[in-house]
């Protein structure tokens, strides 16, 4: 079976133009394949480029060189040269993302944050609301919080809103940036179950997860990123 995601020789530097052109070399010749129903967890020390990779897959950062291809039954999408206007549809329909921190929008309630990915696809508000509430309840977010904007929520409460928003769209590819970092054991278990269910319905997951227990329960494979760094990873170089 063809991989859902194929990354080949991906390369990323950050050039800090405001700092005399300092280049931070992050990724060199990274290649990987990810299949439907599989969960690959990125490993490696802090600052090695794990979140950067997820952000390239979600269109927040541009790749320098290399290719990121997503295969569908009826075609292929090359993300590295996707026109800007096409990213909206990719994020809506193809690549879901649970970021490490919730992007809080003032006056938008937790329930509406979670409904949004379905509304963006034209779902009926009533259906979107019901699915959002089901997920929030499953993640044990107290009902009294559902109609409040999550700006004042605790770290773990915000993380659960973020997880619900990321999972509700059932995208074919789901990116998870430390989704359980702020959660207690009960809610970590819920997230592990949600990841298992996503795998069972054919979702491909690429994640970062420092928690050994969660990692061992969800990961089909680990990818240590160190070997993909530039040869000597003092990692900073001046032009
Ligand atoms: N927008 C940016 N501009 C400049 N440098 C950046 C930018 N984003 C990330 N970096 C740098 O790239 C490197 C990789 O960062 P990244 O956030 O991907 O690390 P990480 O592996 O996710 O680390 P952690 O485990 O701490 O989350 C770091 O040295 C970071 O400072
Ligand atoms: Mg990170």
From TrEMBL:
Residues 5-239 form the ABC transporter domain. InterPro entries: AAA+_ATPase, ABC_transporter-like_ATP-bd, ABC_transporter-like_CS, CP_lyase_PhnL, P-loop_NTPase. The keyword Cell membrane does not apply. One of its GO terms (molecular function) is lyase activity. It comes from the Bacteria. Keywords: ATP-binding, Lyase, Nucleotide-binding. Gene3D superfamilies: P-loop containing nucleotide triphosphate hydrolases (3.40.50.300). PROSITE patterns: ABC_TRANSPORTER_1, ABC_TRANSPORTER_2. Belongs to the ABC transporter superfamily. PANTHER family: ALPHA-D-RIBOSE 1-METHYLPHOSPHONATE 5-TRIPHOSPHATE SYNTHASE SUBUNIT PHNL (PTHR42798:SF7), LIPOPROTEIN-RELEASING SYSTEM ATP-BINDING PROTEIN LOLD (PTHR42798). This is Phosphonate C-P lyase system protein PhnL.
């Amino acid at each position: 079976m063809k991989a859902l995601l194929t990354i080949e020789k991906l390369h990323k530097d950050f050039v800090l133009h405001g700092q005399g052109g300092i280049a931070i070399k992050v990724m060199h010749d990274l290649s990987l394949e990810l299949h439907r129903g599989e969960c690959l967890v990125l490993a490696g020390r802090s600052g090695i480029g794990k979140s950067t990779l997820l952000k390239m897959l979600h269109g927040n950062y541009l790749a320098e060189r290399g290719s990121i291809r997503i295969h569908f039954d009826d075609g292929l999408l090359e993300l590295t040269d996707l026109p800007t206007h096409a990213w909206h549809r990719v994020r809506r329909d193809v690549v879901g993302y649970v970021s490490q921190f919730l992007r809080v929008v003032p006056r938008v309630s937790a329930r509406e944050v979670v409904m949004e990915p379905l509304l963006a696809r034209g779902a009926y508000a009533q259906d979107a609301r019901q699915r959002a509430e089901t997920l929030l309840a499953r993640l044990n977010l107290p009902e009294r919080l559902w109609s409040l904007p999550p700006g004042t929520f605790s770290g773990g409460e915000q993380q659960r809103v973020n997880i619900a928003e990321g999972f509700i769209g059932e995208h074919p590819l789901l990116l998870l940036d430390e989704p359980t970092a702020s959660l207690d054991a009960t809610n970590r278990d819920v997230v592990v179950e949600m990841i298992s269910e996503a795998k069972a319905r054919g979702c491909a997951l690429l994640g970062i997860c420092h928690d050994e227990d969660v990692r061992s329960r969800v990961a089909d494979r680990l990818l240590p990123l160190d070997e993909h760094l530039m040869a000597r990873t003092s990692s900073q170089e001046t032009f």
